[in-house]
Amino acid sequence: MKCLVVSFFLASASLFIAGCSDGVDRINIVEDKCGKCHKPDIVYLNKKSKAEWDRVVYGMKVRGLKISEADEKILMQELYNKLGSE
Ligand code: HEC
Question: Where does residue 34 rank: exposed (0-12), middle (13-18), buried (19+ CB within 10 A)?
Fold first, then answer.
């Protein structure tokens, strides 16, 4: 399992270096903070309204997400802008 996790991180790092060739507009904080419990990829699957993103990120904090207030502000703006449904 450890190896799987490490290789996943290496794979996503090389994707990142390759210039995000999968066509997804990746968000640095998502890659950094949201890949700890699940793949960061699931974050990009569905666009959501602001209220929905608020709820999702709140839910992740309840589950154990650690994020500074400053990073959270940037994260929310990025989610609203790049993955917003309104
Ligand atoms: C502490 C662990 C943890 C971290 C860190 C985490 N998540 Fe999650 N996330 C989960 C778990 C567990 C689930 C799956 C099941 C569920 O929804 O209860 C999940 C599911 C999701 C889903 C799919 C379900 C839905 O409600 O749409 C999204 C989207 C999501 N996470 C976004 C994020 C984002 C964005 C971040 C970073 C800001 C993040 N997660 C960080 C634990 C985490």
Answer: buried
Handedness of CA 60, 34, 66, 72 (dihedral sign): negative
pLDDT at 24: 76
Candidate from 52, 57, 60, 75 with most ligand 1 atoms within 8 A of CB, to mutate: 60
Question: Greater confidence, 15 or 61?
Answer: 61
Does residue 39 carry a pLDDT above 80? yes
Ligand 1 interacting residues, C-beta cut-off 6 A: 30, 33-34, 36-38, 42-43, 56-57, 60, 63-65, 75
